[in-house]
Amino acid sequence: MAGAGWGQGRNAPRGTAGEFDFYLLSMSWSPQYCSSPAGERDTAQCGAGRRYEFILHGLWPQYERGWPQFCASSQGLSNALVEKMMDVMPSRRLVRHEWEKHGVCTGLSAAEYFGKARAAFSAVRVPATLQSPRSARTVAPLKIRDEIAAANPGLGKDAVSVTCAGRFLSEVRVCLGKDMKGRACSADVTRQACRLPEIIVQPVR
């Protein structure tokens, strides 16, 4: 998770694999990325017929304050596993980055980590308002949070955080305990939430 206050380089290794407090499931709103110049060049995620809603950005181990990253590990990631994740993480570069930065800090093997990430992502029910919208929608970020929580009775509102890129929906993040059940997000996570009164949800193209 992005943040500040550590007094270290952005990519500096920190933490010990397996030692963390909870998980942060990050789900990116693909239509927003695909409307950007980078997305327009990305045929794997945004090409013809690639009508993604949310994609799995990652499953991030977190501390109550801060997060581990780039932990020392002898665990490897096979090309076969990268390909296996392409249906929910349509970027080989993203899959490799998420493993190298976050996955190694879980203490799990790559297969276990991505299996857990896929299961967590698949368990989140997407409300009807975010299922393949054909037109842009202007809505309060807290309304999106409430809709996600209502569609997932096991999650409280305090387990869901909505982030934005400018005036647009960027991600929905869900805080999960090590038992993979919803839990209240830390102050670090909630500080990253979108503060705008309303944002635009880009339609699936």
Model description:
With 205 residues, this protein is an alpha+beta fold. It has 8 helices and 6 strands. The protein has a single domain, classed as Ribonuclease Rh, Chain A. Strands 2-1-5-4 form a 4-stranded antiparallel beta sheet. A hairpin with a 2-residue loop joins strand 4 and strand 5. The chain is globular, with a radius of gyration of 16 Å. The N terminus is likely disordered.
How are the SSEs ordered, and which strands pair?
Elements: E1 22-29, H1 30-34, H2 37-40, H3 43-46, E2 54-62, H4 79-84, H5 92-101, H6 110-123, E3 137-139, H7 141-151, E4 160-165, E5 168-176, H8 187-191, E6 199-201
Antiparallel strand pairs: 1-2, 1-5, 3-6, 4-5
| Alpha-carbon distance between the two ends | 28 Å
Question: Could you tell me the strand content as a percent range?
Answer: 15-25%
Which range best describes the helical content: under 10%, 10-25%, 25-40%, 40-55%, 55-70% or over 70%? 25-40%
Rg, Cα atoms, Å: 16 Å
CATH class: Alpha Beta
**So, CATH architecture?**
Alpha-Beta Complex
State the secondary-structure class: alpha+beta
Q: Regarding quaternary structure, how should these chains be classified?
A: single chain
What is the domain tally? 1
What's the CATH topology name?
A: Ribonuclease Rh, Chain A
Order of helices and strands: EHHHEHHHEHEEHE
Order of strands side by side in the largest beta sheet? 2-1-5-4
- According to DSSP, the number of beta strands is 6
Question: Tell me about the biggest sheet?
Answer: 4 strands, antiparallel
